[in-house]
């Protein structure tokens, strides 16, 4: 899991969580609003890799974007964050 803006690679924690929580733990302050997959404020470009959602989010996003509040990486992931 890499945050391109700061060039920091962080392992995905075994206990899971969200990409938003991991970004915040890495010292980033990504935009976020509701944290329940409906507003889309945390939409971030995926530069490489893939994500999955436990529950399909209702917020609109492109196939090359992830909603940080509810996405989980499925592969090595590089975010434009």
How would you portray this structure in words?
It is globular and about 30 Å long. It has a 5-stranded mixed β-sheet. The protein has 81 residues and is mainly beta. It has 1 helix and 7 strands; from the N terminus they run ββαβββββ. The chain has a single domain, classed as Beta-grasp domain (Ubiquitin-like (UB roll), Roll), CATH 3.10.20. The model has no long low-confidence stretch (mean pLDDT 90).
Summarize this, please?
The chain contains 1 helix and 7 strands, in the order ββαβββββ. The chain has one helix at 19-25; strands at residues 2-3, 8-9, 43-48, 51-53, 65-67, 71-73, 78-79. The strands form 2 sheets. It has a 5-stranded mixed β-sheet with strand order 2-1-7-3-5.
What's the CATH H-level homologous superfamily?
Beta-grasp domain
Main β-sheet: number of strands, strand sense, barrel status?
Answer: 5 strands, mixed
Determine the N-to-C terminus distance. Answer: 11 Å
CATH architecture: Roll
Structural class, please?
mainly beta
CATH topology type: Ubiquitin-like (UB roll)
* Tally of DSSP β-strands: 7
Succession of helices and strands = EEHEEEEE
CATH class: Alpha Beta
List keywords for this structure.
single chain, Ubiquitin-like (UB roll), 81 residues, two-stranded antiparallel ribbon, 1 helix, 5-stranded mixed sheet, mainly beta, 9% helix
Spell out the blueprint of helices and strands.
Layout lengths: L1 E2 L4 E2 L9 H7 L17 E6 L2 E3 L11 E3 L3 E3 L4 E2 L2
Parallel strand pairs: 1-7
Antiparallel strand pairs: 1-2, 3-5, 3-7, 4-6
């Amino acid at each position: 899991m890499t945050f391109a803006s700061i060039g920091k690679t962080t392992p995905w924690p075994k206990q899971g969580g969200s990409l938003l929580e991991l970004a915040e733990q890495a010292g980033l302050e990504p935009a976020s609003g509701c944290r329940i997959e409906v507003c889309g404020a945390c939409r971030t470009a995926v530069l490489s890799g893939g994500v999955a959602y436990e529950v399909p989010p209702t917020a609109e996003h492109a196939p090359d974007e992830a909603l940080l509040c509810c996405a989980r990486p499925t592969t090595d992931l590089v975010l434009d964050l």
